[in-house]
Design goal:
The protein contains four helices and seven strands. The protein has 186 residues and is an alpha+beta fold.
Length: 186
C-alpha cells in the first residue's frame, strides 16, 4: 500500500533529492513539502483523466436539480454531478456510440431525458491507498517531472521523467485493461 509521502519520496529519489519523513499539514513551510503538496493533486487528476481506471470508477444515482425554466430540447432533466466526479464515462445501461448522446454536460450539471440515471464515472481520488501500484508509479514519475523544473530547473531531466511517466502510464493502462477482461484459460 502506497502513501502520499511514499509517492513524494519516490519522485524525489528519482531526482536524487532528499527524502521527507512526513508531510503533516498545510503549515509545513519547507519548499519541498509545499511543492509536493501543491503539485500532487494536479498530477493525479491529469493521470486519472487519461483512462477509465477500474480503481477510480464509481457509480452513483444522480440527484435531480430543480427546473431552471430553460428549454433544452432532448435533455429536459437536469442532475447534479457527484462531487468527486472527474469525468463521466456513461450512464448505466447506455449503448455505446448512442446517437444522439443520452446526456450532455453543462457546467456541473448532467442533462438527459433519462428519469433515474445512474452515472458511471472516474472519481477524483487523493488517497493513494486506492491507486493501483503501477498507476502510483506513473504518478511518481509525473511528480518528478514537475519537481525537476520547480526544484532544480533541469529541463532535460524533466523530459526524461516525462518519457518515463508515459511508459509507466502505458504499462498501468495495459494491466488495468487486462484486469477488466481477464484471459480465459482452457
Amino acid at each position: 500500500m502506497q502513501s502520499t509521502v511514499a509517492i513524494y519520496n519516490t519522485a524525489l529519489a528519482r531526482l536524487g533529492g532528499h527524502q521527507l519523513e512526513r508531510v503533516n499539514s498545510p503549515d509545513d513551510d519547507g519548499t519541498v513539502p509545499t511543492l509536493c503538496r501543491t503539485l500532487f493533486p494536479h498530477v493525479v487528476d491529469a493521470a486519472l483523466a487519461t483512462f477509465p481506471w477500474s480503481f477510480a470508477t464509481r457509480r452513483a444515482s444522480l440527484a435531480q436539480k430543480p427546473d431552471d425554466g430553460l428549454d433544452r430540447p432532448g435533455y429536459p432533466l437536469r442532475y447534479a454531478l457527484p462531487a468527486d466526479c472527474l469525468y463521466p464515462l456513461r450512464l448505466e445501461g447506455e449503448i455505446a456510440d448512442h446517437f444522439p448522446p443520452s446526456y450532455i454536460l453543462e457546467g456541473a450539471d448532467l442533462l438527459t431525458n433519462v428519469a433515474t440515471p445512474v452515472l458511471v464515472y472516474v472519481a477524483r481520488l487523493r488517497d493513494p491507498a486506492y491507486f493501483a501500484p503501477l498507476f502510483a508509479d506513473a504518478v511518481a514519475w509525473a511528480l518528478a517531472a514537475e519537481l525537476s523544473t520547480a526544484l532544480v530547473n533541469d529541463v532535460r531531466r524533466q523530459q526524461l521523467c516525462m518519457q518515463k511517466y508515459e511508459l509507466a502510464l502505458h504499462d498501468a493502462r495495459t494491466v488495468d485493461a487486462r484486469s477488466q477482461h481477464p484471459l480465459k484459460h482452457p
